[in-house]
Amino acid sequence: MSFFLSFFFLPSLFFVVVVVYFSVSALFLFIPPINMVGTKSVSRRKARRAHFQAPSHVRRILMSAPLSKELRAKYNVRSMPVRKDDEVVVKRGSFKGREGKVTACYRLKWVIHVDKVNREKANGNTVPVGLNASNVEITKLKLSNHRKAILERKDRSTKTDKGKGKVTAADRAMQQMD
C-alpha cells in the first residue's frame, strides 16, 4: 500500500516542485525594463505625441520662460509660464536683443507674440512674428494674486532644509557652544 501511495503521489509531488521552482526562478529572472517603471513612457514616439497633443492647460506650463537675473534673485524662482502683459527680451534668433510686452500667447501654435517683433508682408501689412517661449527672458512680471501664490509655492529658499548638506564651521561652533 505504501508503495502504491508513493507511486501515486510521486508524479504530483514532482509537478508541484517543478512549478514552484519555475515560478520562483521566474520571479528572480523578471526584472522590469526601465520603460515599464512608473506611468510615463520613454518611447520617443509617445513623448512627441504627448507633447504635440497636449491640452491648453498643459501647454501653459510647457510655454515657460526663464526669469531675468534680477527677478530670479528677488523671487528665488528660475522660470514662469509666459502670459500676456509680461515684459520680455528676446535672447535667441534674428530678433535677439529686442524688448517688448507680450501681446498674445498662442498656445495652439506654441508661440508668443511680442509687440515690437513684427514682419512686413508683401502687401505692406505688418504681422507679429511668433516666438518660442523658451527663446525669451522675462524682465517684468504682470503680478496677480494667482501668480503671487505660484511664486511663493515655487520659492526655492523656503524648500532648503537646514538639516541637509555639509556641516560648516559656523554650525560646528554653534554645536560647541550648546
From TrEMBL:
<dbReference type="InterPro" id="IPR008991">
    <property type="entry name" value="Translation_prot_SH3-like_sf"/>
</dbReference>
<keyword id="KW-1133">Transmembrane helix</keyword>
<feature type="transmembrane region" description="Helical">
    <location>
        <begin position="6"/>
        <end position="31"/>
    </location>
</feature>
<dbReference type="Pfam" id="PF00467">
    <property type="entry name" value="KOW"/>
</dbReference>
<dbReference type="InterPro" id="IPR005756">
    <property type="entry name" value="Ribosomal_uL24_euk/arc"/>
</dbReference>
<keyword id="KW-0689">Ribosomal protein</keyword>
<dbReference type="GO" id="GO:0006412">
    <property type="term" value="P:translation"/>
</dbReference>
<dbReference type="GO" id="GO:0003735">
    <property type="term" value="F:structural constituent of ribosome"/>
</dbReference>
<keyword id="KW-0472">Membrane</keyword>
<dbReference type="InterPro" id="IPR041988">
    <property type="entry name" value="Ribosomal_uL24_KOW"/>
</dbReference>
<keyword id="KW-0687">Ribonucleoprotein</keyword>
<dbReference type="InterPro" id="IPR014722">
    <property type="entry name" value="Rib_uL2_dom2"/>
</dbReference>
<comment type="similarity">
    <text>Belongs to the universal ribosomal protein uL24 family.</text>
</comment>
<dbReference type="GO" id="GO:0003723">
    <property type="term" value="F:RNA binding"/>
</dbReference>
<feature type="domain" description="KOW">
    <location>
        <begin position="81"/>
        <end position="108"/>
    </location>
</feature>
<dbReference type="GO" id="GO:0015934">
    <property type="term" value="C:large ribosomal subunit"/>
</dbReference>
<feature type="region of interest" description="Disordered">
    <location>
        <begin position="154"/>
        <end position="178"/>
    </location>
</feature>
<dbReference type="Pfam" id="PF16906">
    <property type="entry name" value="Ribosomal_L26"/>
</dbReference>
<dbReference type="InterPro" id="IPR005824">
    <property type="entry name" value="KOW"/>
</dbReference>
<protein>
    <submittedName>
        <fullName>Large subunit ribosomal protein L26e</fullName>
    </submittedName>
</protein>
<keyword id="KW-0812">Transmembrane</keyword>
<feature type="compositionally biased region" description="Basic and acidic residues">
    <location>
        <begin position="154"/>
        <end position="164"/>
    </location>
</feature>
